Amino acid sequence: MFKITEDCLEKKTFTEYFSSDAEKGTKEFEELIRKFESEPQYKFRMCDYDGEVFYIGYSDDCTHKKGFDPLDMYGEYYGCKDIQYLNEKGEYKRL
After folding, report:
1. How far is residue 7 from each of residues 28, 30, 47, 56, 95, measured CA to CA in Å?
2. How far apart are the first and last CA of the chain?
3. What are the angstrom distances between the C-alpha of 5 and each of 27, 44, 56?
4. Nearest CA to 69 among 32, 34, 14?
5. Are 5 and 14 in contact (CB under 8 A)?
6. Residue ranges per structural domain of the chain
7. How many CB atoms lie within 10 A of CB 9?
């Protein structure tokens, strides 16, 4: 699961949840949100080919296949071609 918290192009903040495991509006989706909010989250940003940051958000996974969910489910539709996660050194690293 992940949430988008900032649209950097339009300078808007928001919280929208996404999951590849359950459909929005279902009880299962709401349960995933509760679980997501109670566990560690990993900050990410999605960029275009030029490195311009389009979106910032948080994911429950930054290392496995699901770490690409923000890019696959949301970012590519809006022109993002790269996803980077904030590491323990405070640097964004490409997944």
Report:
1. 27, 23, 11, 7, 20
2. 16
3. 22, 10, 6
4. 32
5. yes
6. 2-94
7. 13
Length of the chain (residues) = 95
DSSP, collapsed to helix, strand or coil, labels residue 48 as coil
Dihedral sign from CA coordinates of 20, 75, 82, 89 = negative
Cα distance between residue 13 and residue 6, in whole Å: 4
The per-residue pLDDT for range 32-71, each reduced to its tens digit, is 999 999 999 999 999 999 999 999 999 999 987 889 999 9
**Amino acid at the residue 70:** P
Encode burial over 14-48: b for 16+ CB neighbours within 10 A, e otherwise. Answer: eeebbbeeeeeeeeebeebbeebeeeebbebbbbe
Residues 52-61 as b/e (b if ≥16 CB within 10 A, e otherwise) read ebbbbbbbbb
Q: What count of Cα atoms within 13 Å lies in the side-chain half-sphere of residue 46?
A: 28
